[in-house]
Amino acid sequence: MLMLKPESNYNPEIMIFGGQQVTANADSSLTACSESIRLSIRLPTPKTPSYSFGQWETEFMGSPRLMPDTVLLPNGFVIIMNGAKQGLAGDSSSGGGGKADNPNFFAEMYNPDAPSGQRWSTMARSQIARMYHSTAALTTNGTILVTGCDRCANLKSDLSFSAAAVKAEYRNEIFYPPFWYDFANKPSIVSSPQLIQYQRQFSVKFSGPGVSYAVLVAPSSTTHSFNSNQRVVKLVTSSIDQYSKTMVLVAPPTANHAPPQMYMLFLVNGMTYSKATWVMLLA
After folding, report:
1. pLDDT tens-digit series, residues 133-144
2. Strand, helix or coil at 170?
3. In terms of CB atoms within 10 Å, which end of the chain has fewer, N or C?
4. CA-to-CA distance for 12 and 103, rounded, in angstroms?
């Protein structure tokens, strides 16, 4: 699910990245899917009391990928990484080697606001295969923790890489999105409340060149290519005083927009975002 925005009435957009066709169960040499699919959903209103769906929008990614992990950044961009270019998820019934080969070492970035055909960029590559049981999660400093891999020995690849000594991969990596390096425009949170409540205003003190808006980012809960807790909610800005470096924000309207839990609060300046502080969202 892409960033939820108040200016679009929080109407969600759902995306699916990569995958594999069913026949790979019988032929694990098949190349993975290289497409992404995007679907918009319109929420019910008093005038239209039912959900409505837009058209599927299909675009090619930079490369084929199955078992991908995706990370939604505070600025709405999506980083996709890990997985394989061939085969399928899982292992043999005896618990032996995996059924996927040709690890996809390159991260890619998706810009949901760019024109169609200009949304995908290829990022840096890793030297470590991240296949079955790998994971990726956003951290509070805006980087991405990349870890894990199972059935990772004796892989075939079209690129040289640092192979795991055993089936399990114990090395960890940190991926730095390009926005992390924009220190000249990076804001910082000076103070923020520990507890916020639905529809209530709260103040945040900041430092740095300026702030465009703020978001709440749910902590990651990633496994088997699904982040079941991934959510970025853009907050309504009541006011920003760039001189006193104070902004007044409004918490999400209801638990349907953002379930009650801990969130990372990020400030965004253009496409650059701050480090996060933790806040608890409650009724």
Report:
1. 999 999 999 999
2. coil
3. C
4. 31
Please report, in angstroms and rounded to a whole number, the separation of the first and last CA atoms in the chain. 23
pLDDT tens digits, one per residue of 16-36: 999 999 999 889 999 999 999
Task: Say if pTM beats, i.e. exceeds, 0.85.
Answer: yes
Q: What's the CA dihedral at 228, 197, 7, 231 to 10 degrees? A: -10
Which residue intervals of the chain bear CATH 2.60.40.10? 182-282
104 neighbors 85 (Cβ within 8 angstroms): yes
pLDDT digits (tens, 9 = 90+) for 157-202: 999 999 887 888 999 999 999 999 999 999 999 999 999 999 999 9
Query: What is the topology classification, in CATH, of domain 6-178?
Result: Methylamine Dehydrogenase; Chain H (2.130.10)
The residues of the chain that CATH labels 2.130.10.80 are 6-178
- The residues that bridge with 98 in the sheet, in sequence order, are 91
Whether 216 and 192 have beta carbons less than 8 Å apart is answered as no
State the greatest distance between any 2 C-alpha atoms of the chain, in Å, as a whole number: 65
Domain 182-282 = CATH 2.60.40.10: yes
CA pair distance 70, 5, nearest whole angstrom: 19
| DSSP, res 66 | B
Q: Name the token pair of 125.
A: 């590559």
Q: For residue 99, give the nearest of 108, 90, 110, 107 by alpha carbon.
A: 90
